[in-house]
Amino acid sequence: MKLWKRLRQIVRARRYEQELADELRIHREMAAEAGANPGAFGSVALTLEDSRAVWRFAWLDSLAQDIRYALRGFRKSPGFAFTVIGTLALGLGTLATSFSVFNALVLRPFAVRDPYSLYTFAGWGQTKERPSHRPSTWREFTEFRLQNVAFSEVLGYQSGIASMAGKDASVQAVTGNYFHMLGGGICMGRPILETDDGPGSGVAVASYAAWKRRLGADPGAVGTKLYLRGRPVEVVGVACPEFNGLEERRVDFWVSMALAWSSSDNADIFGPEASLMLTVVGRLKPGVTQEGAEASLLAYGRQMSPTWQEFMTHWATDAVVREPYHGKPPRTVTLRQSATVLPFDRDSIGGFLPLFAAFGLILLIACANVANIMLARGLARQREIGIRISLGAGRARMVRQLLTESLLLALPAALAAFGVAHGTIRAALWLQMNVLHADRMWSVGLWNASPDLRVLAFLLATAGIATLGFGLMPAIQASRSRLVEANRGEFATDYRPARLRSALVVAQVAVCALLLISAGVALRSERRLASQDFGADVRGVFTVTMNRSSTADKKLRQPVMERLLSLSRTAPLGACFLPPGSPSPWSKVVSGNGTIDVPLNLVSPEYFGIYGVTIRGRNFSTAEADAGAPAVIVSETAARRLWPRGDALGHTLNLKDSWVFQSGRTIHSAIVIGIARDSIYSLFDPNGVDGPTRALLYFPTGLKTKDRVSLVVRMNGNPESARRAVEQAVEAVAPGEGTVSSTQELLDRYSFPFRALAAISGFLGALALLLTVSGVFGVSSYAMTQRRKEFGIRIALGAGEVRVMGLALRQSLRLAAAGAAMGALAALAVARVIAHSLVQIDLFDMGGYAAGVVVVIAAALAAAWVPARRAVRVDPAVTLRCD
What we know:
Number of helices: 25
Number of strands: 21
Number of domains: 4
């Protein structure tokens, strides 16, 4: 029969069923009137079945029957259905959480116009991996925008952090065509325009979230002024809720480029430490491929190479020009697609594979858990299955029926997992901001990682695969019913289900042990990091940084110092270029071991006393600090590296590359006058040495120096109250001009990855333990029920309850020990693979391994103890009589 007729039969099934029954009835009545035997037509049911096979799709009818049969079974045992759905929802939901983050960063395009035609120009260079030059001044950018032949439109932006009312705000300085090129919607006011690119223009567009959170959702916010790092900025518009530009992190304000390239101070609103390199994004011309664009840009770069400028301080007039560019003509040009946060390539997929593997292990435990439940249910249904097979149902038909039941359980579990993933991401976002206190350095765009239709499709596909994982073997095992034994209700003649259940329990325990060991190692590493000696007392120490240029900084510094000294709880003031926890500049120092990279800092004599850092030798004098004398204090680690065979005191330290300060003075060499106790300046040592950065060079500066420095002050009492007191003192003298930072918070930002890793691994370990305990409890309950007759006989013959309990728990202990050993071996194998990339964590911490193994074995025994205790406490006479 033609396809369209079969489809019509499905749509109008009831009508055609009635017409077919009427037609058969009429034929039988006509045969009876003619004197023929109505039985000549055969079985009415068989005739109807044959007709349906011709009219419709037979497999679709049988599928509908299987679905109806499965739903009736679930209605009779709702506890079984809800247990399976809940267990699968946890496993699928955790995996969907990791895929949601992958989807947000790699698959979901930005909410801009034609995102897949946008490419970030990373620059020219000798290799694609390390581009060395790109437009870094306003003049270069303007020439590039007008003369390149690859892009139809080009925009530039620079991201950074600027203080606003004492709190950090995420700010992007953008060119005037930013909103027009990206198609960014404005729900109030106007966007930033190209006329705003001129000098002196200070306008901003607030994001919708910043309008609600920072501007109080004021309908009259357009036209108001706010202060970013002390600079007045007029709010000219509010962006639509869905627009966030080309960033994975929330942007609070977009400002005109004039605020970042000002005549008074380079990168004015971002501070002097900000990078002045523009991010350049272009839209490919129609018909131009990425390869063609790279070829044309390479030709343009070779043409412009002789006239490139390395750097300019004045973005519009090019008032300060340094040495012209004398590098080699470029050999390569690098373009990266900007449709998504991360490109969909091998590196992105490889980076997410460990995350998928970790969360996928939870799904594996859940599938093993459900498979054990299905095995137990299959044994209980052997009589039903045996009767169906004896009535003519084939083994393949029974496997299909049982797989249909598994799929019907997996599909609602996938829908529930969608909600689990959404809730997990919301909880992770709250945990990230309120408990782990992630700052903008490490924050991940979880706010935009909510599950969408792509995640739902992934869940449905994964649910289908999981159906085979937890349903196929139980279905095959259940379809092996022996007709005679099954009809008698004898279910214990085949021990293969018991062996399969044991294998699944061992797999569950092994995976759980692997995750618990990972959690133990991460937690112990984080605890060691939190309890280690930093070498400096950073509690209650705050830094005050003026937001203006060096000249304005010097004018404001004296009244701020006087105000801070008036606080009764304040110790003597100090000064430093960068406090501990800040990215410090490095210099190449010539020593007996060759040339060594060492970080530098400018400090006043009071600095060491405020941080409690002891010095062997002597401290800087006030005269040396004010004059910027060629003296240096080195840390103990720096002294050992630079002079490994002698005392560093009195030696001359030579800098390979002279260091130029903001005051204009240059340091070529200095005399070592003191050796300071090691203090951790950063948890990561870019010099290639495992562990924190302890090597440091201290050069002198004073409170009245021309160098741009931050004031350092120690406050006693409650940290929050002390911070408010410092902020109020600064605001009273220089409103909107100062930023107060806690040194403890600066150091905490570097420990955030370890806290986050400990939190994620702890969550996965706890969830794995919960599912494993549930699985072991279910399997043990079923096994104890099956062995109740054996226990009754043993107790009746005089065995004590303790001995029978030991016998009952012995099998669980063997399975748990085998699984824990396999998990520990797997953890060692994984540690050997990733040891080179996680140098800050002791992946072979035996304490973490022992804790994981002990916890999983103890949990498995506790889960088996309850059903075993229940089984041995039953009266043997009652058990034997019932049997």
